[in-house]
Specification:
Helix content is 41%, strand content 28%. The protein is an alpha+beta fold and 118 residues long. It has one domain: Beta Polymerase, domain 2. A 6-stranded mixed beta sheet has the order 3-4-5-2-1-6. The protein starts with a helix and ends with a helix.
Length: 118
């Protein structure tokens, strides 16, 4: 499965759990870390947990396993590393504070809808 297909699968899993403001940053030409960052927010830690479970289940069903997951059920920022795609799940406050979209502004940024249309 390509990084593009993985990203679409992840975004669909997040959308199914009503993730807020799903954004994709193509960092393939900027970093060897991954091809894409997927960033999304949640209203509370329960929603963050549901979003994490949804992504992990969708990827597992596609036989893709996380290389690493940082954060736990009480975290307000969860990082899920799937090699070519890194998922960042935030509380609204933490997303504003860390502002990954600004830090990675040199990457190609697009919304979930734009990414699907690409």
């Amino acid at each position: 499965m390509t990084a593009n297909e993985q990203t679409k699968l992840i975004c669909k899993a997040l959308d199914d759990k009503k993730a807020i403001d799903i954004q994709i940053i193509d960092i393939s030409e900027l970093s060897v870390l991954a091809d894409y960052f997927v960033i999304a927010s949640a209203d509370n830690v329960n929603q963050l947990s549901a979003m994490q479970d949804s992504v992990d289940e969708a990827m597992y069903k596609s036989q893709i396993h996380a290389r690493q997951i940082e954060g736990n059920r009480d975290s307000t920022w969860i990082l899920m590393d799937y090699n070519d795609v890194i998922v960042h799940l935030f509380s609204k406050e933490d997303r504003l504070f860390y502002d990954l979209e600004r830090i990675w502004r040199d990457g190609k940024q697009m919304s979930y809808e734009e990414f699907l249309a690409d």
